[in-house]
Specification:
The structure is a homodimer.
Chain A: E1 2-6, H1 9-21, E2 27-31, E3 37-39, E4 42-44, H2 46-55, H3 73-80, H4 91-105, H5 110-120, E5 126-129, E6 136-141, E7 144-147, H6 148-154, E8 163-167, H7 178-184, E9 187-190, H8 199-204, H9 208-214, E10 218-222, E11 225-226, E12 229-230, H10 235-241, H11 248-254, E13 261-265, H12 272-276, E14 281-285, H13 292-307
Parallel strand pairs in A: 1-2, 1-9, 2-5, 9-10, 10-13, 13-14
Antiparallel strand pairs in A: 3-4, 6-7, 6-8, 11-12
Chain lengths: 308, 308
Amino acid sequence: MIVALAGGVGAARFLEGLVRVAPPETVTVIVNTGDDAEFYGLHVSPDVDIVIYTLAGIVNTEHGWGIKGDSFNALEMLARLGRETWFQLGDRDLATLIHRTDLLRRGLSLSEATAQIATALGVRSRILPMSDQPVRTTVRTAAGWLAFQEYFVKLRTEPEVLEIAYSGADISQPAPGVLEAIHTAQAIVLCPSNPLVSIGTNLAVPGIREALVASSASVVAISPIVGGGTIKGPADRMMRGLGMEVSPVGVARAYQDFLDVLVLDVQDAHYAREIEQLGIRTLVTDTIMRTLEIKEQLASETLATVLA
Amino acid sequence: MIVALAGGVGAARFLEGLVRVAPPETVTVIVNTGDDAEFYGLHVSPDVDIVIYTLAGIVNTEHGWGIKGDSFNALEMLARLGRETWFQLGDRDLATLIHRTDLLRRGLSLSEATAQIATALGVRSRILPMSDQPVRTTVRTAAGWLAFQEYFVKLRTEPEVLEIAYSGADISQPAPGVLEAIHTAQAIVLCPSNPLVSIGTNLAVPGIREALVASSASVVAISPIVGGGTIKGPADRMMRGLGMEVSPVGVARAYQDFLDVLVLDVQDAHYAREIEQLGIRTLVTDTIMRTLEIKEQLASETLATVLA
């Protein structure tokens, strides 16, 4: 059994390769829900849906989020009704939200609702939200504290992030199955996601980091920092804002207490020695997932480092 | 000021003419909410939306309900997620439901939410749900009691209706403004809607029928029964099932305690005498609203009978 800790787009792209080199049924994905939000009274789980849509083969591959070929007629009507519509929700995507919100109002937990949606869409891996309780990532900027989606989507990650908080994390618990999956895993993979607000939020749920430290399985992470920056998203600027080194070394340090192997891109090969001095093995390979073949290759090599 | 009591499609078509022969701002429409239902946790007010969409000029004129040019991608996705989708909700239509449901959850009343939606869509007449409390029309068939939309949409009005109940009506109140509008009206029009489950539901809200009886304004109804049947909907079969005469006479009797004038179609002219013997004046004219001109003509002649 393989456990993957995931955020959004980068994680989903990696998982697409992973479920092609390992039987999908053997993969459990623990997904960040710190980016969850409510729009129009509907519960949005952006990272969960990105992972589900990707593994279901219906994601909009150009964006990495949303459903391919989706229309935006409901959103246009909501604008006409006077609502803010900066969070892009397609009509099919809205259906998922409507369904999830309805399941939650009927008393299902977020993990139960997630399982129903994933199963209905034909996903064979197990998708677990990190927690059934609300944990909300907020970021402090010069203009004050912002909800994550306001910073991420409405303000296009433009403000500098001075501080990050995981509101509610202190009283949250890992969702049912999360700790068991980590305890019984043969390999644990940290997807190439933001170490602060995707993987970092997972790690803020009491018990998850401790389970990784205690796990007898090897833990491997793929560095989301490549060539001094990120492929997508604000991880590099966030790390810099918080005084972290923006390199695979910075990533290695963030996970140092439990990480066995760090996968870094060929262009960062010169960091390998410094990372190994932290007691972390390295794999240097092509981590820029331009094609499905590269995704499979990356997943295959990543697994080999910890399943050997 | 003109007050119109309305149900769905027939009413909306009549109102389209009415607001062209009277200033829209002088018209208050009191709309049946007995057909309201919840789908996927969203509050559907079918008759309210039919009236709003029609007066906003965005109704699907072919169906008489829904929004013209709407897509059905969310509904298709809901089916894929395992939900029943027999109630046809387009993507733009769903936006209205999402918005309304959100407003209700934030504590607005149905009449406040309705006013917001109507205003946002440019409707200049005042649209009032008959009540802010839930009143639900249910029908007894050979198979037992059914919620109205199950009978009306899911079963396509096929079962014979043996009995009608307005669940919750006994403890409901007219929405704010309803009784005041009736008391101060110069003319009251009962639209060509089902006398049992559209107008009848309005009349089941304690105080509305009494206000019509007490009103000093004249009350005129347009018979929805033409040539022994209805243009649209099951009113004729429902009336027959409940032992009422399926003719303008049957309609006149249903409203006898407050009705001053009944408008009947030219093909029903032979009923005029019998209706007048009930103490109700008649206007015989073309009531089949095939064109906008006929709608205007019908509205104009109808108003003339009570504003003289």
